[in-house]
Amino acid sequence: MLKAIPKANNIRFIGLDNSEAMLTKARTKLKGHLKRCELMEADLESDFELADASVVIMNYTLQFLPPKRRAAMLKKIYRGLRPGGGLILIEKVRGESDNLNDLFVEQYHSYKRSQGYSKLEIAKKREALENVLVPLKPEKNRDLLAAAGFRQVDVFFKWFNFAGFLAIKSRKKRS
Known about the structure:
two-stranded parallel sheet; 6 strands; alpha/beta; 25% strand; 5 helices; 4-stranded mixed sheet
């Protein structure tokens, strides 16, 4: 995004993570761009208030919150967006049917093996994420976004058991 958006636009990027180790990696990757970026260690649920944001991007983040707490997080983001602002949400999702879901997961594991991961590494990661990463069906994610206040929601990306959603906050009505 830093490369795609000209510096002259005065757009400020803010990155949040609750892990200092991940922020350190981000600083290394963003070397040369840190004047346009602010990276902060924060817990999205408690440490950070969003205000007047144009765009929020959540890549594989919401899926780690327990499902009962996701609605509150999405409402917090909605309130913090300016009218006409957007949320780009990319998540692991469940397939519409159990058989297709199992097929998607197996295809993804096959892809990981083709990238050099061993069966043991894949199994350990799957076990570590069991009951921590809880994917929802795409329709349930849409429902959560609508309940948060987003009236325009669409899927812009779907690959096996991963999906990207674009949700736009309505502009205020003029009186």
